[in-house]
Design brief:
With 277 residues, the protein is mostly helical. The protein contains twelve helices and no strands. The chain crosses the membrane at residues 34-58, 73-93, 132-150, 156-179, 212-232, 244-265.
Length: 277
């Protein structure tokens, strides 16, 4: 079954299937509330260590690549919330390679629901809210601590960055899953772009070579998650001297990435050959 159909009915069916499957896993999770609380706290604590590493750096320096701690916190928070929401909503697609290898993907193909929706909702992990919460706390600190004259445009840029950033990471997850149709044991390759990309964005663009900045702006547009919007909010020059309007373009970047990842997913699904074929 092709999950990428353009019809509104297919989209509605996908969302309904996703909601039903996710709700089932949430009910299963909440049946063991103590376990849920512990795993959510563990997820929160593990991600806290990432920011602790940054705090340790600032115990020795006053700035990192010319960026202060509150400014780094803004970068970290924008990335953390965007990635956390994408990981919560669609992170389960990274298990596609396992399903291809053991043949369980075939069971999704025969069900009357889009495969991508089923795969994204499979084993829906509510504990991933710990990552979102940690990112939101750091973002709150960054927004409160930076020396910024807030305007309606800057508030809008922050909101658009969260929406667009989440869409960009969702697209990366789906594109990585599509790649696993070809290279079945490629989850670590996918993680290099998802988790690795999130780690990269926790630091300012000024600490990276220009070639890297260009790559994450024009090839895999992760820069629209936080580098470009944060630079606008802080009154800094945008990376690569981009025009000011690009600070508002995070949702556009996310939409383009989602469209391309959708094409990759459909191509990968069409190329799939069942374990029985």
């Amino acid at each position: 079954m092709d999950p990428g159909g353009a019809g509104g009915g297919r989209v509605a069916a996908g969302l309904r299937a996703y909601g039903l499957i996710a709700a089932m896993w949430i009910r299963s999770t909440m049946a063991y509330r103590a376990s849920f609380a512990m795993t959510t706290f563990a997820s929160f604590a593990v991600t806290v260590l990432d920011f602790v590493a940054i705090l340790m750096m600032f115990s020795r320096v006053d700035a990192l690549g010319g960026w202060s701690l509150p400014e780094i916190a803004l970068l970290y928070g924008l990335c953390g919330v965007s990635f956390g929401l994408a990981d919560l909503g669609i992170g389960s697609v990274e298990r596609l390679g396992v399903r291809v290898r053991d043949g369980t993907l075939d069971t999704l193909l025969v069900r009357p629901a889009p495969v991508l929706a089923q795969l994204a909702a499979d084993r829906f992990a509510l504990r991933r809210l710990g990552r979102v919460t940690q990112g939101a706390l750091v973002l709150g600190y960054g927004l409160a601590a930076v020396d910024v004259a807030w305007t309606a445009a800057k508030v809008l840029v922050v909101v658009l960055a969260l929406v667009g950033g989440g869409a960009v990471f969702c697209a990366v997850f789906v594109a990585g899953a599509a790649f696993q149709f070809v290279a079945q044991d490629a989850s670590e390759v996918q993680n290099a772009f998802t988790y690795g990309g999130a780690t990269l964005l926790q630091y300012p663009p000024t600490v990276f070579a220009q070639e890297m900045v260009r790559a994450v702006t024009f090839v895999l547009p992760l820069a629209f998650v936080n580098w470009i919007p944060a630079a606008y909010v802080l009154g800094r020059p945008l990376p690569l001297d981009l025009p000011v309007w690009t600070a508002f373009a995070s949702p556009l970047a996310g939409a383009v990435c989602c469209a391309l990842s959708g094409l990759a997913w459909r191509a990968g699904l069409r190329s799939y050959r069942s374990t029985g074929s």
